[in-house]
Input
Amino acid sequence: MSIWTRIADAVAALAKGEGLASVFDRLKAPPERSVGFTIAVIALGAKMAKADGQVTRNEVAAFREVFAIPPAEEDNAARVFNLARQDVAGFDLYAGKIAAMFGPGDPVLVDLMEGLFHIAMADGDYHPHEDAFLREVARIFGVDDRCFRSLLSRLVPDAPRDPYDVLRVPHGAPIEEVRAAWRQAVRDSHPDRMRARGLPDEALKMAEQRLIDINRAWEEIQARKAA
Output
């Protein structure tokens, strides 16, 4: 059974009236945690799609920026999105249940925030209501402001881009501190580590662009220090 079939079954249970808490309780431990992660991205993404008042076909296409969806599974992926979009539960309820699966600021929650940013940018515009939505989700997740600025800097083209924010270090930090942060960020972005956190293989595409951004930030800071 593919991950998308398992995800569709879990979200269908929500649509049939099964409580959100009971569904997520079954998804707390590996390997099903990867199903919970994917449902979280899709469900919150579906809620966020309404935040700017427009729901377009681009949202499903945006999942390809986060998930590798085999052609044979596209119908299941679309079904999950539609079921999540129709669910009456508020996004804060989803976010709270997801946060309870991990701890405040857990790397998985940061991974999830990154996926939501990709979906927010599906239509090429970062709407103020989407910003408010993501900031509230970050608050519920215990994701601090420095981490949020890092995601904003990397993933929203019109946002101010600061390499120190990308690496989550103070402006003007010593080069040794920056190097240590860069090395840790590279380690944390390795597919094996992301997989160990419970991300499905389908979501590991995020690591590719993340590594590009991290390495570029390190190179920019090195150049500034050398100037």
Notes: The chain is about 70% helix and 0% strand. Residues 205-226 form the longest helix (22 residues). The mean pLDDT is 78.
